Amino acid sequence: MYLHEEVDEGEFLFVTESGSSYNVYFTDGSNYLPDEPFSPLIYMFGFERVQRVKTKIGSDPRILQTIVHILSLVFEKNPDSIIVYVCSQTGGLQRKRSLLFEDLFHQFGTGFKKINYSDSESFYCSAIFREENTYSFEIEESIRSFVRNKQNPV
Is the pTM of this model over 0.90? Predict the structure, then answer.
């Protein structure tokens, strides 16, 4: 894992051994389910490489380890957080990104629930929350209803 710093509320920065830097961020996601009592606990999660240093080194497992660690810090700070992420469609690799997150969840997701939504073509997203979340049942019901409404608009 790489050393990281919280540069702003909900925004973390780390630099890899090769010198590439990454930004991991959490933004307000309450607009997804604005009428729910847990709405203020919903955060959109994302990360991006902000500076790339070309290197001949292959993939760096410490990048994902660092991102997973940062996610765990958010849940430590607020155990009732709900983290939503949408896989970037850049390069047409959204399905591959979704599968990577699925693998990560199987490795590190003990004690958490994950709800997936996909149109099986170009849109892949998930919500992750702790099994002991105060609103666990309501979260599952609300997200499933939200997804049903997206799939079968009135």
Answer: no
Residue 10 backbone zone (phi > 0: left; psi -120 to 50: alpha; other: beta): left
Burial class (CB in 10 A: 0-12, 13-18, 19+), 46: middle
Separation between Cα atoms, residue 51 and residue 22, nearest integer Å: 7
Q: Are 98 and 89 in contact (CB under 8 A)?
A: no
Q: Which CATH class is domain 4-151?
A: alpha beta
Residue 23 burial by Cβ neighbours in a 10 Å radius (0-12, 13-18, 19+): middle
Distance CA 24, CA 13 (A): 6
Helix axes 94-108, 61-77, angle to 10 degrees: 60
- Cα separation of the two ends of the chain: 47
Residue 90: which of 56, 119, 48, 59 has the closest Cα?
Answer: 48
| pLDDT tens track for 83-135 | 999 888 888 888 888 888 888 888 888 999 999 888 777 888 899 999 999 99
Domain spans of the chain, in order of start: 4-151
